[in-house]
Amino acid sequence: MAINENQLEAWSHIGAAATSKATYNTVKTALERADAPYATRDIFLQGSYGNDTNVVRDSDVDVVICDHSIHYFDVNDLQGDQRARFDATRSPTEWSAEKFKQQVAAHIRAQFGNGVTVGDKAIFIPGVGNRRDCDVLACTEFRKYFQYTNGGAQDYHEGVCFFLPDGTQVVNYPKMHMANCTTKHQATNQWFKPTIRMYKNMRNRMLDQGRIAEGLAPSYFIEGLLYNVPPAKFGGSHVANFSDTFNWLYSADRSKFVCANERFYLFHPTSKVTWRAENCKAFLDALVAFWNAGG
Questions:
Q1: Quick one: 210 exposed, middle or buried, by C-beta within 10 A (0-12, 13-18, 19+)?
Q2: What distance in Å separates the CA atoms of residue 197 and residue 294, rounded to the nearest whole number?
Q3: Which candidate, 265, 220, 205, 274, places its Cα nearest to that of 57?
Q4: Hey, what's the torsion of the CAs at 224, 226, 230, 236, to 10 degrees?
Q5: Domains assigned to the chain
């Protein structure tokens, strides 16, 4: 018994746009205050609200504040003269990602009170009234060099990085993710983002029914999963759109799928920024049973 057109269409709608926008504006204004102890103010949305893929159940607004005064880097692709040229331009600094996070956390706590908590990854601001919960990721610029001519932006892919308490460096490319998702949305005649919202709402319904466990299919990975579907599979009715995208995903060789930022493969057994292949398979299998049960 398939899920009907009206239900799928309802699940494709965006959720809580007004309150998320207001939350972002409030937090951004606080981070940009003239009395903030840090100099950099590159602040932007990431996650579901940043990509317009949020649904009603999405709670946290994800905000990034990135320090461009220093950067971490990967130069493994540089060889010979290019590597030597890069090494010659390096200069030591005592500033670090951890010190930046400490400054940002202290400033946020001064603005929003003692309910603010500093997590392993982000700084959490609890919601009050119409302001939603918000995670602020304090990070620094990251550069993945593919050549080194004069050190300009044409020499590297720009991302962000932060460090876990055990010293593990986590690198991601949120601006590339957002830009690529926008391009994909246009290539699918505006079906890509509503399709993500439909899959996310179906995941939430399966969570409520106990069909899957919390954390099995994070929103970021659902976006990455659908990013790999060919544009021609999107569109038509909502039933056809789901059937065509799902059937392609279920039968595809997913081993070479990429994240929407196109900097990582989507599946890896240990990476902090990629999905586990077995979790994806469990999610897709659960969707088959969910669809056959009529939702």
A1: exposed
A2: 18
A3: 205
A4: -160
A5: 17-172 (3.30.460.10), 177-292 (no CATH)
Q: What is the CA radius of gyration of the chain?
A: 21
Give the whole-angstrom CA distance, residue 81 versus residue 148.
9
pTM: predicted TM-score of the whole model, two decimal places: 0.92
Instruction: Render each residue's pLDDT in the chain as its tens digit; 295 residues.
Output: 689 999 999 999 988 777 888 999 999 999 999 999 998 679 999 988 888 898 887 768 999 999 999 899 999 999 888 998 888 888 888 889 999 999 999 999 999 999 999 999 999 999 998 888 999 999 999 999 999 987 677 899 999 999 999 999 999 999 999 999 999 999 999 999 999 999 999 999 999 999 999 999 999 999 999 999 999 999 999 999 999 999 999 999 999 999 999 999 999 999 989 999 999 999 999 999 999 999 8
